[in-house]
Write a structure and sequence with these properties.
This protein is an alpha/beta fold. It is 42% helix and 15% strand. The protein has an eight-stranded parallel beta barrel with strand order 3-4-7-8-9-10-12-13, surrounded by six helices. A three-stranded antiparallel beta sheet has the order 5-6-11. Strands 1-2 form a two-stranded antiparallel sheet. It is globular and about 55 Å long. The structure holds flavin mononucleotide (FMN).
Length: 364
Amino acid sequence: MSRQLARALPAAMPTLYRRVLRPALFARGRDPEVIHDEMLRLLGAAARSPALLRLIAATLGGGPDDPAAHRRVFGLDFPSPIGLAAGFDKNAVAVPALAALGFGFVEVGTVTRWPQEGSPRPRLFRLPADEALINRMGFNNQGAEAVAARLAHLPPLSVPLGISLGKSKSTPLDQAEADYLASLEALHPYGDYFAINVSSPNTPGLRTLQERDRLDALLAALITRLLALGAAEGRPTPRPLLVKVSPDLDDAGLADVVAVCLARGASGLIATNTTLARDGLTSAASEPGGLSGRPLHARAVAVVRHLRNLAGDALPIIGGGGIFTPDDAQRMLDAGATLLQVYTSFIYEGPDIARRLARGLVAR
Ligand SMILES: Cc1cc2nc3c(=O)[nH]c(=O)nc-3n(C[C@H](O)[C@H](O)[C@H](O)COP(=O)(O)O)c2cc1C
């Protein structure tokens, strides 16, 4: 049975998802976040069963099985350049299943020092005509201690694990450093890289941490601590630290981020987070929050290109924002990204998106 499924499903999946599964999942009247939580529960259950993980890898994931897809970046080996962006698995409940789906790396979080509920619901909205999402989740997560306890029980992973760190809503902005440091301490043993999220539009004031002086102080503190934690673990090099940027920064703001990252020795950049802009939408989009998906793509590519021009080869960039097709992925690579991340196309295109994108890139 499983062998027959493994043969038939990969070819049928895109149509099956678009024609049958997606309409059922997107049925009117159901809060998209409830569907998200149900899918995550299923993936979490699968993550605990080696047999199911093998079935998922055989039918939906499994990666492109091609050394051409392999990347070595930040001293880490990525079996494929297509990763899952932060925000999908905020509490790291389904990482092995996400790896089985063919993602070449998984970024969990954003995790904050303290557990928090996030914004009132509803807070996640689909714009199907634009293949976009608007979210104002507000870093709903179980907090660094709980996520660390879960990660401590994970079996070894086949792909690098990134951990996105954010500021707790209850922590005043001028105490942000201590908040990020506490999360870093708790999670340090488990992350292959750490991403500093200073670009979510849904935590008041968070984006001001991208300003030159604030970012400089934050990075200085975090990198000093990473060096100490790495040395204490006997690591030859500290864990990589990346900064995730907003697509709403202007050129001067992007230049400030690059200058600080270079001066402080950050390992790379993630571009971009969601946008507050509403350009190019056909749907009426009155909900506040961050917009992701197709309408973000052109701006995200432009930001990656600008960052690459500013940073040269000194800061590898993980590019993301509206990557739906191998053409989109290639466009982002051509703009200067070294690795890629997706979130919204996972929702619109289905569970085999990582494999399709990776194979599409290799086929080029
Ligand atoms: C529902 C939702 C929640 C998100 N939560 C986070 C988050 O917690 N941390 C973060 O860095 N980015 C978060 N993001 C942003 C994504 O990681 C990504 O940067 C953005 O959606 C652009 O990529 P996409 O167009 O492929 O979705 C979230 C996005 C969505 C749609």
